[in-house]
Amino acid sequence: GRDIPLFNAHTGEKFQGTYWVNGRYLPDAFAGIKGVMRDHRSGETFPIDPRLMDILYVLQNKVDNFGGFKVFSGYRSPKSNAMLRRNGEGV
Predict the structure, then answer these.
(1) Per 3-state DSSP, what percentage of the chain is helix, strand, and coil (rounded to 5)?
(2) Which residues pair with 15 in a beta bridge?
């Protein structure tokens, strides 16, 4: 299987598990990944492209670092983007 650890820097939430096994992506794992990568301002989620997890999996193996990836920004809803734009923060 393929394991990937993710840590949300804003919420402290984690996903640490197998997302792919025997040639198949695991829907339950992607539900957890989607939760960790959700818009922490609105709570909205968005489907995460499985290829992103594959890229991160390859990267962690190439650099031999299995400590996990810290997520600062996953999905960001249009409402959050508009609010950040109004407040002059980088969008």
Answers:
(1) 35, 20, 45
(2) 6
